Amino acid sequence: MRIVFLFSFALFAGAVVSATSRSGRTPLARTKQGTYAGIQLSNQVDAFLGVPYAEPPIGPLRFLPPQPLKSSKLVNKVDINNATEFSPVCYQFNYRTVLGEATLPRTEESEDCLTLNLYVPIRAACDRLLPVFIWSFGGAFAEGGGSVPLYDPTNFVAENKDIIVVTWNYRLNIFGFPNSPALDAQNLGLRDQRAALEWLRDNIADFGGDPTRMVLGGQSAGADAGHAMLYSHSKDPIISAIAMQSGSVQVIGAASDNADAEFIRVAETVGCRDRANRAKELACMRRIDAHRLKHAVSNKTVNYFGSPPGGSPMIDNVTLFTLAEYMHRGHKGKFAKVPTLMGIMDAEGDGVLNWDAKAGVNRMLSNILTITLFNCNIALESSFRALNLVPIWRYRYMGVFSKVTPYSWLRAYHIADVPMLFGSQDAITAHYTSSPSEKRHYRNAAQIFRGIFASFIRDPSNGLTDNYDWPTFSPHAKTLMELFPKNSATVTLSDPSRYDKICENPPPIPWELFNSTGATSSGSSV
């Protein structure tokens, strides 16, 4: 590996000197594309922030697939590239969530956003190549980024000391999913993630990581996207395993016959609409200022869950397929057969429905969404993997801990497991207090949860069975792990039919109970 350290007296000038960490030591990574100067975050963790993995998708590259990185984003191979600060996040629409500012990026927005953040244990400078955990954020393909406080993996890396964690940015909303029929390639935000994986395959060893031991993780939309790549790149997944939190590919993908509705609406708003010549319309949209495009997507177009995506993934039969095709491919094993860890929260709907600070959410709707959109989809996917003899471990997160639960009406809600995974709970502002014993239960539960992921990352095929006596999933045996039942720091193996039996005839989602701004209360914002 090629991580070295620069002790900053006058070895080089400019931004790197000014970014030198408190220890006076700057980590360097020498790659094929040049040398990157990172920053020491603690006495245990180095970081290389804002490292580009593709050309900026600006100007004529707007609405095109990610292009291989050229010299425009690098100083040159002999100079130092500053990797001490986050890049801007991709343009997005931040909607109101129960976690408040914890899910808001710490940086500005830009189209020049296709970057990675690499968190490296300091001991990696001298040891063997380490396993890599690549984590993809959620946010309905509308918001999110590597600089979101909730997704900061510094504590996870410091605790484990032998795992590198990577986070990334990818294009969102209309910039990532324009869906114009004039385009030759769709779902650019998904293609961005594949491009990032390819960059990591070629360069991660220079940061101390093992390219043959890269585990892709993600939550919600991040899990959806990762899962999609197992089908779209079944013969060359790059990754060696996948960990999916609250997501599966079956919940995304608009039909192609109406997928461009938002693009048309925005084109009309900015004066680019051309019914007779969609290519001319697309060329016009490429010339519009990015801020103007963003603000042409209004909060009047929010989806049923109250989030304004401004454009979302579509079925193109290249990166995303129809549900019938996924059923066929899943049954026949036409997907990348890598070890899999997947799970959901016990009350996913509490975190995706529109909500009121006092009244909470409509629990009937929340329960239906948890069953139909989350549980039944991963039940289907876990059965495909078991049928095709793919090692898979499945969990259901039950715990409710005030440290990660800002409102007392929340149950085990969508995204509550993320701060537990990364140890980023201090980013959350709680609106009620917890007892010392409850805090102790949370600390112990968090240690278990992080341990599960760390064991899987280190050894995807055997780590969970060896360290937790957790058998691989079977639909007909006690193999589903219930995490933290009754808010305790314990785990229990359960028969999955307890939750999956209803999937034989899942409850229909009563869309008539939703209004145009979400569930029972407004609050979405652009």
Poorly predicted ranges (pLDDT <50, ≥5 residues)? Answer: 1-22, 516-526
The CATH superfamily title: Alpha/Beta hydrolase fold, catalytic domain
Mean pLDDT: 85
Any idea of the CATH topology? Rossmann fold
Based on helices, strands and strand pairing, what is the structural class? alpha/beta
Number of contiguous helices:
14
CATH architecture: 3-Layer(aba) Sandwich
Overview of this structure, please?
By secondary structure, the protein is an alpha/beta fold. It is globular, with a radius of gyration of 22 Å. The chain contains 14 helices and 15 strands. A hairpin with a 4-residue loop joins strand 4 and strand 5. Helix content is 27%, strand content 16%. It has a single domain (3-513), classed as Alpha/Beta hydrolase fold, catalytic domain (Rossmann fold), CATH 3.40.50.1820. It has helices spanning 15-18, 154-160, 173-176, 188-203, 221-232, 261-269, 278-287, 290-296, 323-332, 363-387, 417-422, 436-458, 463-468, 497-500, and strands at residues 3-7, 25-31, 34-37, 39-40, 45-52, 80-82, 115-121, 130-136, 164-168, 209-219, 241-245, 340-345, 392-397, 480-483, 491-494. Residues 1-18 form the signal peptide.
